[in-house]
Design goal:
Elements lengths: L6 H4 L17 H22 L4 E2 L2 E2 L32 H4 L1 H8 L2 H10 L30 H25 L4 H18 L2 H8 L9 H14 L2 H23 L9
Antiparallel strand pairs: 1-2
């Protein structure tokens, strides 16, 4: 006969009343993440509202592509102006949702801001303050499932920033701003193509890699980027801020253009 544990013994399990028994500085990582992401959000709001975003041949990444007739001469992407006159709205608002939505729904960034902003949970072996957990099955978090669609738009934005960097490379090859834009484009593309959705699209549903050698090579390359997705997420976030700020400082005359 199988012997069962009596209920009184079962109820002797220790009741941990503190949030965690960890003695290390577990709070440091979510705190730094909170500060890093907050700085990006604060800077992004300022950059979108700032009007000094172009000085030939540089255009600030937060305002590219510029698609309004109110854009400065030479700033319009391929000369297009499909949005007409937007004198009352900064041009960055027209495209803000595309790269913003891609990062907001990114698998890595979800983990980052869930832990640092919502404390869900703040760290391993740390109790979260929420009474229940529903995951991403309800509104608004169920909208995170559109990440794969934002990925396609992110490719377009990465292409635009690459185009801007190439233009700068052609017209001002020795300018410091040129190489800042080039580095930013490389990091943006690395982050974008290292996305989990890109890895799934290239060969995620294949049962036989040997029958699809081209897709397998693409999957292998994307997998290498995906292994560094966290690092590329942070590097590209700070590079796009740095490149954007640099162009604006040049446009404002704070950095002397002949040496830019």
């Amino acid at each position: 006969m199988t012997q069962t544990t009596p209920d009184p013994v079962r109820r002797q399990r220790a009741q941990v009343k503190v949030r965690t028994l960890r003695t290390d500085r577990w709070w440091l990582a979510p705190l730094l993440t909170f500060l890093g992401l907050s700085s990006f959000l604060v800077y992004g709001v300022w950059a979108i509202l700032d009007t000094s975003y172009f000085v030939d041949p540089y255009i600030a990444p937060f305002s590219s592509p510029c698609l309004a007739t109110s854009c400065p001469e030479g700033a319009r992407f391929l000369g297009w102006a499909p949005f007409g006159d937007w004198y009352t709205l900064p041009p960055g608002l027209l495209i803000l949702g595309l790269p913003g939505g891609f990062r907001l729904t990114c698998y890595y960034y979800r983990k980052s801001y869930y832990r640092s902003f919502w404390l869900s949970p703040a760290a391993c072996a740390v109790q979260e303050p929420h009474g229940k957990y529903t995951g991403e099955t309800r509104f608004p978090l169920i909208v995170q499932n559109v990440h794969r669609y934002f990925f396609y738009f992110a490719i377009l934005i990465g292409g635009v920033l690459t185009y801007d960097a190439i233009l700068a490379l052609i017209h001002k090859p020795i300018g410091l701003g040129t190489w800042i834009l080039v580095l930013n484009a490389v990091l943006i593309l690395g982050y974008t193509f290292g996305c989990h959705s890109c890895r799934h699209i290239t060969a995620g549903r294949l049962n036989h890699f040997s029958r699809h050698p081209v897709r397998y090579r693409a999957w292998t390359f994307v997998s290498k980027l995906n292994a560094r997705h966290q690092q590329l997420a942070w590097a590209s976030m700070f590079s796009v801020m740095g490149a954007d700020l640099y162009v604006r400082l040049v446009a404002k005359g704070i950095i002397a253009f002949p040496f830019a």
